[in-house]
Amino acid sequence: MIKKIIVTSVLIVPFLFYAQTNNKISLKNAIKLAQEKSVDYKAAINKKQVNYWRFKNFKSTFLPQIRIDATLPSYSNSTRRIVNDNGQDIFVNQNQSRLDANLSITQSVPYTGGSFSLNTQVERIDIYGDNPKTGYSVIPFSINYFQNSLFYNPYKWNKKIEPLILEESKKDFVESMEQIALNTSTRFFRLLKVQKQLKISEKNLSNQDTLFQIAKARFSMGKIAENDLLQMELSLLKSKNNVIKNEIALKRATQNLGRYLGLKDQDVALVAPSKLEIFDVDPEKAIEEAKSNRKSVIEFRRRRLEAEKELARVKGENKLELNVRANLGVSQQGPVFNELFNDFNKQQNVTLTLGIPIFDWGVAKSKRKMAKANLDLVDTNITEEKQAFEQEIYLHTLNWSNQKSFLKTSDKAKEIALKRYEITKKRYILGKITITDLNLAQQEKDQAIIQYLNALEKVWIDYYTLRRLTLYDFETNQKIKVTDVF
């Protein structure tokens, strides 16, 4: 009768996952929180903002730019050195003030790489002293054209590259959200396993304490040796240490997940995710979706264009240097402002500068060779990265197909280990086996439970890794999209 009561008292507590009475968080809820509050999400938003405004700035460069520059009344009363009409340096006293304003409209010309500008300027000078006087100068309009190089057009290359950077940014944001899901899953399962290990250690401590009391009673009756009693006491002490160790690990894992999710309350209770249905994934389909959805393919194109742009710049600036500057307009100056708009003086000039390197010890040639070598290096790296890109996806899809049997085996091993431990514990209480056999069964039971959680974690981690690698949800057969924050 006493043995039956003891057995019942040991076995009456069921084996459950860690849970609390407060709000519980599932894996999907944790991911949703992380994709709204985590530091990684804020960093992804900031990165997307930078690229968004970069593209807006690029588009704005092709629109007319209106600007006004003015010099507020500036006064000067000092002695300065000037060159007179005879080419001699003389010192004169200047006591004057100046006021001017310039209105300009500038328009880039993407087809040539130059820029047009339309300017209007007015200026007034007041001279003080014994013979005071006032002078005005006005340029009603002046049309200017400037082009830095006739052989290199940066606008042409930017029109190819900047849209790719924007598109790459959009896909990068989706990838960042999936990476956040993956990071959250890792932290979630780390805490879930620690919670489970704490529950196991608390359960083991309760069992070890009960069994130690039984062992002391048996030792007092002379049914077991002192060595067995000491072994049972040692197991009890180890169980206490395990509880303390797991409590510390629980606090660390809880804070880690809580900070990542932006939770103020560090008391986080988790709901163990259910078994994920293992669906089939065609490797060719996965690679095709990854090429269509990932930023890498766009990045490859962008990097090659940037290398080609640099090569074009070096070729355009290190062979024949040819710059052009032209101006067409009218101007007038005089002492009376109202008379400045009668007969205008023509204002026309064209400047064409030419630079031909004759002998530069191979400087220009070496720059061209470096740019060409860099383009070849970019091509080589892109080819290698494309192969690694496809191989990673191919191997991951093959690994995914093996997860179903692995999870099923781990689940079955857990059930067997739990059943074996219960049987072993009953036999030990009845005195049919030694404490060594009981400890071995307990270790195998604990390992089987953790291995099952590891297998469950592996499935969910692989699932979110597959989503990140392809930006495609094979469970619902649709592309992964996120709401555009702009």
Provide an overview of this structure.
This protein has 486 residues and is α+β, with helices and mostly antiparallel strands. The chain has a domain of 260 residues: Outer membrane efflux proteins (OEP). Helices cover 58% and strands 21% of the residues. The strands form three sheets. It has a six-stranded antiparallel β-sheet with strand order 2-3-4-5-7-8, with no helix packed on it. A two-stranded parallel ribbon has the order 1-6. The chain is elongated.
CATH architecture of the domain at 2-55 and 158-197 and 213-224 and 250-302 and 379-479: Up-down Bundle
Strand order of the largest sheet: 2-3-4-5-7-8
Unreliable residue runs? 1-22
- Helix/strand order: HEHHEEEEHHEHHEEHHHEE
Q: What class would the helix/strand composition place it in?
A: alpha+beta
CATH class of the domain at 2-55 and 158-197 and 213-224 and 250-302 and 379-479, named Mainly Alpha
How far apart, in Å, are the first and last alpha carbons? 74 Å
Percentage of residues assigned to helices: 55-70%
